[in-house]
Design goal:
Largest sheet: 3 strands, antiparallel
Radius of gyration: 18 Å
CATH topology: Triger factor/SurA peptide-binding fold
Helix content: 55-70%
Number of strands: 5
Distance between the termini: 31 Å
CATH class: Mainly Alpha
CATH architecture: Orthogonal Bundle
Shape: globular
Number of helices: 9
Structural class: mainly alpha
Number of domains: 1
Length: 215
């Protein structure tokens, strides 16, 4: 599994599957603050996107949201889950690119209605019992597994839905003869779009060892 994940082709497929095409269920686990490595001099912020600063805390939020997303998507595939979570370069890049996409959604002023957030949460299998949403399980998972108040979780979901809408808008003019080819072309289009956006961004974080910024 680890050898497989070193393949650039596989890493790219994982990236688009987890970050772009699969609607993420972002939840926030407590990981402490992130900042300049203890005892070291260095940058006071994580980088810039569109010439606007990204704080270390924003990067930390993206890392933890990404970790939760992957955990929820791969909870029944423990080997793949563990391998991806341990792949620091992949995790760091995906977290940074998610920040780029979140900034784009904000720039486009994309709105997500309350009922869209509710529909998404009520359809998520982690909160279901017997195939139906269960309020008790929802509260239990948030309280005991995620350590979140419902309001915080709902706002994280809202941002995730905004990112999905933004990506759909970016690829709305992509055409193909069938669904499989359309998905491939959308991947390629988004990859090219993100590459261009990355060129206008600058990160001060070493993705190979991003944990050193935690304090």
């Amino acid at each position: 599994m680890l050898k497989l994940l070193r393949s650039k082709h596989i890493m790219k497929a994982i990236f688009w599957a987890l970050v772009i095409l699969i609607l993420p269920a972002f939840v926030l686990f407590g990981t402490g603050n992130i900042g300049r490595p203890s005892g070291e001099k260095g940058p006071s912020y994580a980088g810039t996107i569109d010439n606007k600063k990204v704080t270390f805390d924003e990067f930390a939020d993206s890392i933890t949201s990404l970790r939760c997303q992957i955990t929820l998507n791969l909870f029944n595939q423990p080997q793949a889950l563990e391998a991806i979570l341990k792949n620091k370069p992949l995790m760091g890049k995906m977290a940074w690119d998610r920040l780029i996409m979140a900034r784009e959604a904000a720039k486009l002023k994309i709105k997500v209605k309350n009922d869209e957030v509710v529909t998404y949460i009520r359809s998520h299998p982690i909160f279901a019992r017997g195939g139906r949403f269960d309020e008790g399980i929802y509260g239990y998972v948030l309280r005991n597994n995620l350590g979140l108040y419902p309001r915080n979780f709902e706002e994280i979901v809202r941002e995730s839905l905004a990112i999905k809408k933004s990506n759909d808008l970016i690829t709305k003019d992509v055409k193909a003869a069938d669904e499989k080819e359309l998905e491939k072309k959308k991947n390629e289009f988004l990859e090219d779009w993100l590459r261009k956006r990355e060129s206008a961004a600058k990160t001060n974080i070493d993705f190979n060892d991003y944990e050193k910024y935690y304090r």
